[in-house]
Amino acid sequence: MDIVSHSIRERTIAENSLVILLQGLHGQMTTVDLRDESTARGRIINVDAFMNIRLEKVLYRDRLGFMSSMDDLFITGRNVRYVHIPDHMNIIETIETQLAKIHCVRNFGARKEYSKNK
Amino acid sequence: MEEGERESESERRSAPSQTSDQQTTTETSRQTPETEEDDVETKLDISSDKFDPLLALYSPQVPLPFPNIRCFNNIAEYESFMKGGRGRAKPENVEKRLRKAQKGKADPERIERLKRLMVNNPVEEEGEGSGVKRQPRRRKAAKNVLTRMPLHTGSPLGELNRCVQEKIRVKVHIRTFKGLRGVCSGFVVAFDKFWNLAMVDVDETYREPLLGQALYHEKALTITRLFEKLKVQESVALSAVENQKSELHSSSSRLTNQTRRTDPRHTQERSEHSEKDKTTLKAAQQFKTKPKVEYGRVHTRHVNQLFIRGENILLVNLQLE
């Protein structure tokens, strides 16, 4: 499961916005309320920098109230209105954990023998 | 070119005035027996009057007053050297040069440093090694969503930051495709430049959007109207329940024990009451034919932690008390 995106661009976008909070919810069971008043309840597989969300084992309730279940659902970022965050998650801690992961990845190849400012 | 030459000449002249004197004396003593050789010598001597530059350029050996002097390729190089540019013998550079000279030799200090950088256990070593390395180094200030929150002082987002810091309850107006959908009342924990909000302890009051002609004809929904509608709905529900109860009391013997499933569109209070009550077919029909606000019902719900995409926010209102 890719925790951090492979693209530098997506990483920076995520790092500077609240999408990183949603990326910390990988694997959690949540409800996403869409712009058109429909709701999708499922396990988050992946959220990218543009808030596109992939869910699995979804109970989808469309805006007319009809329920249906799906194995896999992809929601475009723009169509998201709310994301319900599970009660047991601490918001600030989740954000900080995700930021630390990005730092790890960023500094992976940049080990230097001598420091620049001696 | 000429000026530079003159300058370097003057430098060279100032120090070795002694040597030139010596040379001239030798020249004068030698002049009579071997004039040609002396001539050549004087001509090649830079500090003498009879200096012949053309001869000097083409002769195989020219006596330089300072053989070990630093050579420059052009005047510009000389100028930058004099000004103390890169490469000037500063202590750090001298050290660097010495280090480079010793490149091939094994340096125990260097071996230690390299060992520290080695990755035995990728996760651990990385954290340790990079942590140790980073402390002496001056670090560029980390810029991420959390550090950007307090940066907006003076702007509306700065006001929002104040709500985060002082834990002020806010009311967030949410929009539908056209107009107001509802209000979320809660505490903001985090936000970003897109106005995405992470909120806790949220009470949401909202109305499902009207469709078609109703939307066209209806007056624009405002907060006051929203809550009025909510009150009206509640009162309708209460009165309906009261009516029901009185009916039940009067005709309890005739009732059959039927419990009907509630219509998902009812509000919470109404659903609670109707679940408890026993209904007759007559009463059920009354429910379906007589609801006052069928479309565009106002709903209330509580969410402990909610993330709102900034696109859907109309405005944020501080709830100061």
Topology:
The complex is a heterodimer of chains A (118) and B (321).
Chain A: H1 8-15, H2 19-23, E1 29-34, E2 39-47, E3 53-61, E4 67-75, E5 80-84, H3 91-106
Antiparallel strand pairs in A: 1-2, 1-5, 2-3, 3-4
Chain B: H1 2-14, H2 17-30, H3 35-44, H4 53-58, H5 75-83, H6 91-101, H7 108-117, H8 122-134, H9 145-148, H10 156-166, E1 169-175, E2 180-191, E3 197-207, H11 213-217, H12 223-250, H13 268-276, H14 281-289, E4 298-308, E5 313-318
Antiparallel strand pairs in B: 1-2, 1-5, 2-3, 3-4
Helix pairs in contact in B: 12-13
Structure report:
The complex is a heterodimer of chains A (118) and B (321). Chain A is 25% helix and 32% strand. Chain A has 118 residues and is α+β, with helices and mostly antiparallel strands. The termini of chain A are far apart. In chain A, 28% of the residues are buried. Chain B is 47% helix and 15% strand. A five-stranded antiparallel β-sheet of chain B has the order 4-3-2-1-5. In chain B, helix 12 packs parallel to helix 13 (268-276). Classes of the chains: A alpha+beta (118), B alpha+beta (321). Strand 5 of chain A pairs antiparallel with strand 4 (298-308) of chain B, so a sheet runs across the interface.
Most residues in contact: chain pair = A-B, 39 and 44 residues
Overall morphology of chain A: elongated
Strand content of chain B: 5-15%
Order of helices and strands of chain B: HHHHHHHHHHEEEHHHHEE
Per DSSP, what share of the residues of chain A sits in E-state strands of 2 or more residues?
25-35%
Q: What quaternary form is this?
A: heterodimer
Run of helices and strands of chain A? HHEEEEEH
DSSP E strands of chain B, number = 5
Q: Compute the CA-based radius of gyration of chain A.
A: 17 Å
Tell me the major beta sheet of chain A: 5 strands, antiparallel
The total of beta strands of chain A comes to: 5
Number of contiguous helices of chain A: 3
Mean pLDDT of chain A: 89
Give the proportion of residues in helices of chain B: 40-55%
Across the major sheet of chain A, the strand order is 4-3-2-1-5
Tally of helical runs of chain B: 14
